[in-house]
Amino acid sequence: MPQTLRKLVGTVALIALVVLYALVATAVAVARLADAPAWAHLLYFLATGLLWVVPAMLVVRWMLRPDER
Q1: Confidence class of residue 6 from pLDDT cuts 50, 70 and 90?
Q2: At 68, phi and psi to the nearest 5?
Q3: What is the pTM of this model?
Q4: Residue 21 belongs to what H/E stretch?
Q5: What are the residue ranges spanned by the domains of the chain?
Q6: Which of 4, 33, 54, 61 has the highest count of CB atoms within 10 angstroms of its CB?
Q7: In whole angstroms, what is the distance from residue 55 CA to residue 14 CA?
Q8: Are 2 and 69 in contact, with CB atoms under 8 Å apart?
Q9: What share of the chain is helix, strand, coil (3-state, %, to 5)?
Q10: Number of other CB atoms surrounding residue 10 within 10 Å
């Protein structure tokens, strides 16, 4: 697959990843943290706010891989 096509597919995948991840993280927070103290909310959103970077890094690494000859 040429790099330009990988970049297009990767961009769409990153947008979908961020949207779905945000929806799932928020739904879990609403379901589990409704009566939790503020520090639990802070820790949860700090962890989930950083955790999406791992799969995003993998997608970006795949997108930037040079073309095979």
Answers
A1: very high
A2: -85, 145
A3: 0.80
A4: helix 3-32
A5: 3-63
A6: 33
A7: 9
A8: no
A9: 80, 0, 20
A10: 20
